[in-house]
Amino acid sequence: MNLVAKTFLAACCLLSLSVSAELIHTDGAWRLKPGSASDTWPTSRTEEVLRTIDQAENLAILREDRAAFALWNKLIEKEAGTDAEAVALLGRARLFTRGGQFDNAEADLDALYKSHSNFSGFGQAVQLAFDLAGKYERGERRYLGGWFPWFKDPLHALTIYDKILKIAPNGTLAEESLIHAARLAEREDRKEIYNELLERIVSDYATSKYAPEALERLAKLRGSESLGADFDQASTQEAADHWRTLADQFPQDPRAKGAAEQIKVLRDRAARARLNLGKFYWYKRNNPEAAKLMANACRSLSPESEAAKDAETLLTEIQVSQNPPKTIADRLLGTYPRPRATADTKPTVVGDELDTLGFRKEAPKSATETERR
To answer: Where is 277: in which H helix or E strand?
Structure first.
């Protein structure tokens, strides 16, 4: 084997060994994990990389950012693909964050997520991303080039929180990212995003410490979507269900104390919707049977509510009176015609000239010689 080939092979072996080396953060410093690299990896290079990392971190502590940047850049360039690069990317991202260069910090974190998913300091990178999202959320300005102040962009925090959920859905910050994103979406009046985030907490993190808050917020959101007893009551029923879930699953939570009263109010609203329909059928459409049906539905839905008491009054009035009270329109134009009661529930017999679907029957025609052809 010639000298060039031997040199190339040695370089390849050295590169593969450096990639296999794992750096861990212990006792406030980055160290080589025992057994993560071959004994043939040059000790001088190991010491040099670790010494450079320590020096860069110390410079960052002393606020010597320019010198720290130079060392991080050197490591990123020379140690591409190794854990040393991941440490450098994380260190540089911290400097960018501190200097207000949020875009650059996010770019470094993205590079770390993409190439170093097994990095022992991955959790620190996720924590830094969470802190960065918090800065956006609080309305801190980012600085272009490190000096030019740019517009506030609190909604960008939602993008970072979502990224955290994708790269670490089972991590310790996943639940916090969801609830922080939900609170931000509510403040920024992004109802669709707000609703989606709350639903995700309730469904994917049902045992989370933030689940009671999410249930309460979801119940209030559903309750606010109901426009009153004269409108559709689907959201009212959903709000009551969320309050009931909160009371059943988290009875010791302070938020559950008011659940019973909220359920009572919501059930009364839903019951009153049936009562209003009953009054409409009785007073406006002269239809006592439909009115009694709606009044009884009101009583069944919420027997102890005020709407149920009003339904009892309506049923008594229908039973006592033969006809509803006449309005001015009734006196001028006549009473609305009462629907005819159908005593016979058998299907109407179709005439001989019509088939069962109501189409006219046609006598079969004999096929002529021409039609056969």
So the answer is: helix 259-279
